[in-house]
Amino acid sequence: MVLMSTSPEQPRLITSGGEFNWSKMPMAVAATLGMFLAALDTSVNVALPAMTDDLGVDLQSIQWVIVAFIATQAALVMGAGSFGDRFGLRPVYIFGATTYLASMFFIAFSPNLETLVGFRVLQAVGTGSLFAISPALAARVFPASRRGLSMGFTVGSQALGMLAGTIGAGFLVGWIGWEWIFLGRTPFAVIAIVLGVYFLEGKRKESSNTENSGPAFDVTGAVLLVGGLLSLIIGLRLGRSFGWESPAVLALLTSAPMFLITFWRVEVKAPWPVLPGYLLRIRGFTTSSVSMFLANLGVFVIWFIFPFYVADSLGGGTLMLGLMLATLAFFNTISSGAGGWLCDRFNYLPVGVGGLLVMAAGLFTMSLLNTESNSWEVALRIGVVGAGLGLFQAAAYSLMLGSVPSERFGTAGAALSLSQSCGRVLAVAVIGGIFGWRADHHLLGLAIGPEADGLAFIKAFKDVFVIGSSIGLLGAVVFLIGGWRQTRTAVPEET
User: pTM for this one?
Assistant: First the structure.
């Protein structure tokens, strides 16, 4: 049994070992399906070149298909996690799956980019709900003594969705059209709704828990958090298009800290805050969140820049791109399961740090690619990145959910989802901006000609992957220091 108490306001965590309860198999399937559906969105990255041509837009405009989705998911995911802790995981899961299903049809039949981006926002609401709740569901399926296995299970489900999304998109986009990367998900969403309605348990009423007698939900805090994150993310994105001195950009970037400061002041006094202050004082919580942010900031350069490298520099089609990205997802699937087992067998610290170092090494080798690189060489290097990321994710989830009270599993899972989303959207906004700047810089030093753009692209491609590798190394340092301190101060286990 493990007892934890970080502060007077923190609830105590009391867990015990035991065997897997087979009666909870439907909950396990629901958790798997939730993460699977959320991860299927990697298919959009494969379809970006085809969507760009079909909708008649440029590279800067098509980025909103990614940015709008991730920004909305990042802004709403904490509210979904807090709502799940307050009212139960079941209603949030059902809402997420239902919203996800509806959005698939709307996106597939969108007549233009503006409509498509609008319905991508709706999809993000559903995806964010599933992403926040599914790790908490998995944590309640497995006993505490198998926490690493449960998180490896969760991350493996996500990686499996990435694998299916990338391979499926490669075939669907090339043979039928990009619309089917959305319509093809609808059967899985229907199954998720059925599981949620008929098999998931509702919120257990605990009359002794006085905390549950407070306000239903901190709406004010959730709105302020959404406003702050959206202002920051959209401001960073528009700064590249309109200029950093644009009145709209300045207004957004100025309002973002005001929203977030107000959010913090409101949360301090809220009876049921979206983000309880005591969680920020748990070293495992902050270490996992920060390192997850850095890992995704570094690795998401693959999902955004790499598709155009395959299409423009290697001359590959959507099938080739899908198979390339599937290599990352395949190794991620295997390593996440292995990482969960290693966390239970040894410790999360060497698994997480080792995973980030492998990921950083893989990203650095990606910077050595050029127009002459063969597909097998590219696939191997991207597979190394996936293997390292899977090991780290299993360790990060293990550290996070092993550090917080069980009644805050929803919030904890949402925090990691928020860290992932913020890392990804800032990668598009910041690293994407660096890529454009470096490409323009290299272009100035090249003689004008038909090959100049291609050479500038490759040089900028190399630059951003070196940056991604450096960020991965920084994440390893953060996880090492924070994880080591958490290990030193952790309360030893009792029988």
Answer: 0.75
